[in-house]
Design a protein that fits this description.
single chain, alpha+beta, Glutaredoxin, 2 domains, four-stranded mixed sheet, 8 helices, elongated
């Protein structure tokens, strides 16, 4: 997702909703992780305006908030797509052609691993192992595995998702 698209989304952040999440925790700095989790659950990621608002209201330096959110993999600082594509990079999948699968997905979606399409339809991620080695090479879209893939099968799979 381009920086311009993220900036446009961040302009539409309703800080009243952030306040309703923060309110029960005011004065409880030790509750910052649950606050961040709830804000992310609401928006799907942690928008910069929300992070700045949490910093001000909770009297926590923004650098500390970013330290927390970059340390824990659960936190996302950019919007994520409605559909999360995980490409397995495990040994079995790699040997069976997962690099070609990744290349084809990147070509179709015009994003690289770790990025989200501008329409917020897909986020592409690489993972160490999905645990479906018998189906190698495999991708997981949301919670649905797709195995024994070839680059030619990828477009039909992606087209089946809204």
């Amino acid at each position: 997702m381009s920086n311009e698209a993220v900036a446009a989304l961040n302009q539409d952040i309703d800080l009243d909703q952030v306040d309703s999440i923060i309110e029960p925790y005011l004065g409880k700095k030790e509750m910052v992780i649950p606050i961040l989790q709830k804000v992310q659950e609401h928006f799907g990621y942690l928008p910069r305006p929300a992070m700045e608002h949490i910093s001000r209201r909770m009297h926590i330096p923004i650098s500390r908030l970013y330290g927390i959110t970059t340390f824990y993999a659960q936190f996302k600082l950019k919007p994520r797509g409605r559909n999360i594509i995980r490409v397995c990079k495990g040994t079995a999948c790699h040997i069976q052609g997962s690099p070609k699968i990744s290349e084809r997905i990147e070509e179709i979606l015009e994003v690289e691993s770790g990025e989200t399409t501008d329409d917020l339809k897909f986020t592409l991620e690489e993972v160490a192992c999905i645990g479906c080695c018998a189906l190698a090479p495999v991708i997981m879209v949301n919670d649905e595995p797709h195995g024994r893939l070839t680059p030619d099968k990828v477009k039909d799979i992606l087209d089946s998702y809204e």
